[in-house]
TrEMBL record:
PANTHER family: GLUTAREDOXIN, GLUTAREDOXIN-LIKE PROTEIN NRDH. Residues 36-100 form the Glutaredoxin domain. GO terms for biological process: cell redox homeostasis. Pfam families: Glutaredoxin. GO terms for molecular function: electron transfer activity. This is Glutaredoxin.
Amino acid sequence: MFKSLKKMFGKNPDGMPATDAPAKQFDMEAFHMNDIKVYALSTCIHCRNAKKYLDECGVKYECVHVDQLTGDERKQIVNEVKEYNPAVSFPTIVIKDKVIVGFHKDQIDAALKED
């Protein structure tokens, strides 16, 4: 059934574009958890999709759900996000020295390929 849905609508049941190609693999040795940080909201579908894609790529990352923080910790993290993304929109993904605002597979792929 899912194959027919893919053909008809070009999307998987989770709303992601349909593809039969395996997830791209990257040199996992080149990345450590502190090289990739995802600032996200726990309720954001784009954040969820970005994290799912990073999981599929096989890289480790640190995720901070900003909406689940409180007090000074939340203020500190929001200020941290502002340094990368003054609009403070989510997801904000930092891969080494590259900043990606939103869920953009092509930008994530490019940042992961750089070493």
